[in-house]
Design goal:
heterodimer, A: four-stranded antiparallel β-sheet, B: mainly beta, six-stranded mixed β-sheet, five-stranded antiparallel β-sheet
């Protein structure tokens, strides 16, 4: 149980285009989903926390107009990187927390490798 | 310590060796410590969640200990196997429930 899928697993796009990444909880209802970004050899850095039906909470330094997050249902959250630039190239990974989850236990998707040319 | 730090960054061992690595985390406002196992191209898999000082958890050949007073946790792997090769992440929750991750320890087990 507690499976999270993420799509696409990798994407290459041209500078200036927008890219949407989907995160789905397959067998549980996720009241909260998290979006992380990871640079090589660094930690997962939290970008934003999204709660179903409400606006996402962004971490300091993360541009909310650049990284649009939507959590329209209890099983789906999307991250849209708008007007992508090469510096947005990174590994993006989502996680989800069950409504009944304790100790902030999170279940992760497999991540998306974004390359912006 | 303000961040979660893991050491070593990477580790190469022979099949059959036992190994351990360290996670250091802020001891103030501690709520929970998580260990994850992350294989390439897969989702990080939860290994343990630990909350109490002195906690010891075990799953097969993998075990972990927790010291919340001094802010560290050890992960042990007994008799490493090639399939244990992965990145091991630890993450700390503070009282605000924010999760802070370490950069991971990358383990390579050679047959």
């Amino acid at each position: 149980g507690a499976v999270v899928s993420q799509h696409p697993s990798w994407v290459i796009c041209k500078s200036g285009t927008s890219v949407k990444i989907e995160c789905r909880s397959l067998d549980f209802q996720a009241t909260t989903m998290f979006w992380y970004r990871q640079f090589p050899k660094q930690s997962l850095m939290l970008m934003a926390t999204s709660n179903e039906g409400s606006k996402a909470t962004y971490e300091q330094g993360v541009e909310k107009d650049k990284f649009l997050i939507n959590h329209a249902s209890l099983t789906l959250s999307t991250l849209t990187v708008t007007s992508a630039h090469p510096e947005d190239s990174s590994f993006y990974i989502c996680s989800a927390r069950e409504a009944s989850g304790g100790y902030n236990e999170q279940f992760f998707g497999p991540g998306t490798r974004l390359t912006v040319l | 310590i303000l961040n979660v730090e893991q050491s070593p960054q990477s580790l190469h061992v022979q099949e059959g060796d036992s190994t351990n690595f360290t996670c250091s985390f802020p001891s103030s406002n501690f709520y929970a410590l998580h260990w994850y196992r992350w294989e390439t191209a897969k989702s990080p898999e939860a290994l343990f969640v630990m909350t109490l000082n002195g906690d010891e958890k075990k799953k097969g050949r993998i075990s972990a200990t927790l010291n919340t007073k001094e802010g560290y946790s050890y992960l042990y792997i007994k008799g490493s196997q090639p399939e244990d090769s992965a990145t091991y992440l630890c993450a700390s929750n503070t009282g605000g429930f924010k999760t802070i991750f370490g950069a991971g320890t990358r383990l390579f087990v050679k047959a």
